[in-house]
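Hi F.,

I've been meaning to write this up properly since the lab meeting, where we talked about keeping a consistent format for the predictions we share between groups. The idea is simple: the sequence comes first, exactly as it goes in, then the structure tokens exactly as they come out, then a line or two of notes. No screenshots and no reformatting. I'm using this chain as the first example so we have something concrete to point to.
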Amino acid sequence: DVQLVESGGGSVQAGGSLRLSCAASGYTYNRNCMAWFRQTPGKEREEVATIDDGGKNYADSVKGRFTISISKDNRARKNILYLQIDSLKLDDTAMYYCAVKSTYCALFGAWNDWGQGTQVTVS
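Output, unedited:
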């Protein structure tokens, strides 16, 4: 079974930094895209950053402040997806989720698997 487990969220003052982690295991997609999303109550889930073999992409609202990266352990089929968040703003307050889909990021495809989320609160 695919497991995505986020961690690293918390309460932080504006201007501070956080690093979110997503421990991913159990998926065997030869091509895949991983991403970070965020959502606040009453709003749609927003894709903030994606990463695959072809590179990284960011939503305009987070460019220059968010950095997505991945640490791969192919033999163990476990990856850790990171999201470094710097210069936090009040608007960054949200539940952050990681997700994976079995296509490259630029290709259309449903997100196959989601984590349970980690809350980031900026004050």
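Notes:
The CA atoms of residues 4 and 24 lie 5 Å apart.
The chain has a mean pLDDT of 93.

If this format works for you, I'll send the rest the same way.

G.
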